[in-house]
Amino acid sequence: MTKEFIRSIKGTQDILPDQSQRWQALETTIRNTMDTYGYGEIRTPAFERTELFASVGEGTDIVSKEMYSWTDQGGENLTLKPELTAPVVRSFIQNNLGGQSPMNKLYYIDALFRRERPQKGRYRQFHQFGIEAFGSEHPEMDAEVIALALAVFNDIGLEGLTLKLNSIGSSECRSNYRNTLRDFLKPHINDLSETSQNRFENNPLRILDTKAPHEIEILKNAPNISDSWTAEDKAHFEEVCFLLDTLGIQYSLASNLVRGLDYYTRTTFEITSTALGAQDAICGGGRYDGLVETLGGKPTPGIGFAAGMERILLALGDDDSSGNPTQVYIVGLGDGARPSVAKLAEDLRQNNIRTDFDPLRRSIKAQMREANKSGATIAVIIGDKELESGQAEIKDLKTGDQEPVKIKALVDHINSLTL
RNA sequence: GUGGGUGUAGCUCAGCUGGUUAGAGCACCUGGUUGUGGCCCAGGAGGCCGUGGGUUCAAGUCCCAUCACUCACCCCA
Predict the structure, then answer these.
(1) What's the rounded Cα separation, in Å, for the pair A359 and A367?
(2) What's the pLDDT score for residue A321?
(3) For residue A319, what pLDDT is reported?
(4) Nearest nucleic acid nucleotide to A60, CA to C1' distance
């Protein structure tokens, strides 16, 4: 590698043609499924005002230390979007979508930016697809959102998934629970890690998320958030569960499942894959009934999820689904044949036949090798002899059979073949 | 931000306790017919052994630093 070469940014990656096939397949599946479930695509800008994200997740790592933020030449504080719910909600409010229809179902496929230390399944520029459904506070909406996520994964062929489900209740439920949890943890506070001690004040629910064994041990006897649910929270969650049962969707209850962003209410869920490393969450989401209002819109319930595309492709593993191979390879010989080769290639391509030829002016042997490698079913050979006789040679690359065909009739002839 | 691992040809890697022209497989190129692929055979191109310093008669091999990649912590999709 040349010393002075300018490399890509850490944690970003180029998607080369062999990989882009897989991305396209995933994107197509997503779009088809979204269409079936009645979701329309929304595309928001790559960057937003920094305050938009700050107002949504002050206490989170994503917002507090992972954002790519800068001040532009006009003095505006801007940020490359690190998550998509806030921008979509912003757009929902700004375009008054709620005023046009009581129900809005949106999906996106987009690139996000977080300055984390890269590792397997975690990159600084990464991609998510996701949905946001605005308008319904009812459990059937929750169930649909979860079913939709699973439908996409099923269609793409992902296996080994686990759906974890929880309800973190309404805001009054959580403030009650915060207190009972603090009361419970107080005697153990000196046994907690430094970060957990910090969270004890700002966001004690996050302590539930810990991976430290001794903290998990302490938390075993912690009060469950379900004890703090209001009657409505409980009824909502039970109905969500009942609906999932009805839809034949399996899930496990995870009372310690707290999502990363601050704005969630009631239903939260996460889908993990056994095919990944430490970063095994493929999809995370939940309800955020207060967010639209927080960001300055009319009170509107909402629920959504986001799924990591890199992680999905990682979990799918390497299947060598090579794209569509060349169908016809034209072998040209000599200066005189060049215009005929170019014209034939163009005519065939205009007929939607995947055609290629050798622009390197190599020997016939090299060109035949190339034809073979390209996966073409037939090779067309045009040289001085053929120009003179007006007949090109068509070689079937499977059988090796070769026959002359009038150059003028080539396009029609090839069209009549099954390639 | 904190740890661990790894950096040798385009790719995957070998190179024993430091020793002379740095290897293999795959890929690539050329040839084996004067205008015909796959298989086979022969040949070829391609590496300042990540970078910088040090130890030594001698360093891809040892030491230090640095950078990059990677996995994990953390965090999360």
Answers:
(1) 10
(2) 60
(3) 67
(4) B75
Interatomic distance A1 CA / B59 C1' (Å):
22
Which residue is the nearest neighbor of B9, CA to C1'? Answer: A1
Nucleotides in B strand less than 7 A from protein CB = 1-3, 28-32, 35-38, 50-51, 68-77
Q: What is the pLDDT of residues A17-58, one digit of tens each?
A: 888 888 999 999 999 999 999 999 999 999 999 999 988 877
CA of A3 to C1' of B26 (A): 28
Q: A218-252: per-residue pLDDT in tens? A: 888 888 889 999 999 999 999 999 999 999 999 99
Domains of chain A as residue ranges with CATH: 17-170+230-316 (3.30.930.10), 328-415 (3.40.50.800)
A367: the nucleotide nearest its CA (via C1') is: B37
d(CA A334, CA A382): 9
Q: Give distance CA A14 / C1' B61 (Å).
A: 35
Q: Which residues of chain A have pLDDT under 50?
A: 1-3
Residue A56 confidence (pLDDT): 81
Q: What is the CA A19 to C1' B25 distance in angstroms?
A: 25
Measured CA to C1', the nucleotide nearest A333 is B35
